[in-house]
Design brief:
A 3-stranded antiparallel beta sheet has the order 1-10-9, with helices on one face. Strands 2-6-7 form a 3-stranded antiparallel beta sheet. The protein has a two-stranded antiparallel ribbon with strand order 3-4. Strand 6 and strand 7 form a beta hairpin. By secondary structure, the chain is mostly helical.
């Protein structure tokens, strides 16, 4: 027992010179982070740290020094092998996709939507702009002024761009307008890999809504719905985002601010004869409709025809796994969460965007924590630092926001 207690004290207090040297190097920030050079994320932040053998380490230098050290190799990679934005767009996959979903029926063609790669690129362009304009503004923003790292697909402004001597709100708004026009032309006039201009694409209504927000006379006021617009949310997360907005509107806003509740509902675009479209467009959406007791025309007592399509959009993502299993399909699944959300997008394209803008105008959008929907993945790493042997540091790393 005494020998075990002595060994425990030696491990806790690190009596050896080697242990003291490790703790001094760690506390001073002299940590070897070369194993992190293969990461392609940017602005890496540490969420959780576990030091099994170093209980007395001073964590304060780590919190201030390690994120800076992590950014050094990443920033070098961004500006290493990179190409201009027009070249990157030319070599990337098609920006707009138009694919059918499982269970699609009827003669109507599915609506076009942004591909995942184009969602990441557009989100990062907007994020880059809103990070830069509080510090410096630019005379004009053109596609040749933006470079993209081939490894991380992160854009950054090249050294050729000219800064504006005035950093006024009007100049900031002008930069946001320029970025909106740049994104619009990027989607409409994408060239193929041979450099040939294809047929101009038609902007989806939800993407056009984002562009219109960026082209407002004062787009800075709409910063949150621009940066976290619904057309940039990964398709798997659209149902979760709608559920959060729906619950806030129905459970909070309806009782705390009745006039604001009516304002949000008035801002929703009419969805037409949505019950007929749902039943005729996708057999799986029809199954969800038949399970619920919906009243599209508001004939029952206390039913509201405006709230019925919102209830349907809330119930489908919440009960997606019902009726999912199939023995006849190869993978045993009739559809996935992504495909059922895409089917809802085809029928209710503008509902999510209108709800975002309505909540933002009332000042409630920042309560929802939208940034979490743009953290596409959390990387679990076992990071071994030679200067801290035999301790292992288990680091949960996520980029902020890493779409």
């Amino acid at each position: 027992m005494k020998s075990e207690a002595a060994a425990r004290r030696r491990r806790q207090h690190g009596s050896s010179a080697r242990g003291r040297r490790r703790r001094e190097d760690f506390n001073s920030g002299r940590v070897d982070c070369r194993p992190l050079q293969h990461l392609s994320t940017r602005r890496t932040g540490i969420i959780f740290l576990l030091f099994p053998f170093c209980p007395e380490i001073n964590f304060q230098p780590l919190l201030t020094s390690v994120p800076i050290v992590l950014q050094v190799p990443i920033k070098g990679m961004e500006q290493g092998e990179s190409v201009s934005l027009p070249v990157f767009i030319q070599d990337m996959s098609p920006i707009l996709l138009r694919t059918t979903t499982p269970g699609h029926t009827g003669q109507r063609q599915p609506r076009p939507f942004l591909s995942p790669q184009s969602q990441r690129l557009i989100f990062r362009l907007i994020e880059l702009l809103f990070e830069e304009i509080p510090v410096r503004c630019f005379r004009q923003i053109r596609r040749v002024h933006i470079m993209v790292c081939l490894q991380s697909e992160r854009p950054f402004f090249s050294s050729r761009i000219q800064e504006s001597p005035d950093r006024t709100r009007a100049q900031m708004c002008q930069n946001v307008n320029s970025m909106g026009l740049l994104i619009r032309d990027m989607i409409i006039y994408q060239r193929d890999q041979g450099g040939r201009a294809g047929k101009p694409s038609v902007l989806p209504r939800e993407v056009k809504h984002l562009i219109n927000l960026m082209l407002l006379p004062d787009p800075i006021r709409m910063k949150v719905p621009i940066q976290y617009h619904s057309c940039l949310v990964p398709i798997e997360y659209r149902g979760f985002l709608f559920t959060i907005e729906y619950q806030f509107i129905m459970d909070v806003l309806r009782y705390a601010d009745r006039e604001g509740f009516r304002y949000v509902l008035r801002g929703l675009e009419p969805v037409g004869d949505w019950s007929v479209n749902v039943r005729n467009s996708n057999r799986y959406l029809q199954q969800f409709f038949n399970k619920g007791r919906y009243d599209p025309n508001g004939l029952r007592f206390q039913s509201n025809p405006i709230l019925e399509p919102l209830d349907y959009n809330r119930n489908v993502p919440s009960h997606t796994l019902e009726g999912l299993v199939s023995r006849r399909d190869i993978n045993g699944m009739r559809f996935t969460r992504a495909t059922i959300n895409r089917a809802l997008y085809f029928e209710f394209e503008m509902v999510l965007a209108n709800m975002l803008v309505g909540l933002h105008r009332l000042g409630h959008l920042h309560h929802l924590g939208l940034a979490v929907f743009f953290h596409t993945r959390c990387i679990l790493m076992d990071l071994y630092i030679a200067s801290l042997k035999p301790a292992w540091i288990h680091v949960y790393i996520s980029s902020e926001p890493c779409l």
